[in-house]
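Weekly modeling sync, notes
Attendees: S.R. (lead), two postdocs, one rotation student

Agenda item 3: backlog of single-chain predictions. S.R. asked that every request posted to the team notebook include the full sequence so nobody has to chase files. The rotation student volunteered to paste the first one in as an example of the format we agreed on. Action items at the bottom.

Example entry:
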Amino acid sequence: ANVGPSDDIWFPTIDDKMAGLAFVKGLGVQAPKIFCCSETLSDLKSCIWSNLPLGHEYVIHVMGGTSSHSNQGTFVLPDGAELGSPSPSSTLYRELLRGESFTTAQIESMIESMNGASYLVQKFILGSS
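Predicted structure, as returned to the notebook:
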């Protein structure tokens, strides 16, 4: 018999980013530091602006919404960005997964268009190649 995600009781836990982090930490495995976790885009922007200095590298995960089960809802910002700034500049910030650079307004617009149920911001850790 084929067993799909809806038939597997572990799938919802493994698919949930926060539950996955709790699971690996429970095993003693190091995971990237969590800077922010919020349910609204405005709280996300406020948390980033208040807690992460410009140039601080981080990853934003848009959870739920139209980005579920893909990397479309993941934004890897190795140089940070001015998310939440009351007066963002037109500076372009690198986003590694898309291989392009975007202004803060463009990043915020992409995140908003995904209608996320929640948002998670973690430290970006450059892996070895």
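Discussion: group reviewed the output briefly. Helices lie at 11-15, 17-26, 41-51, 104-113.
Action items: rotation student to repeat for the remaining queue; S.R. to check formatting next week.
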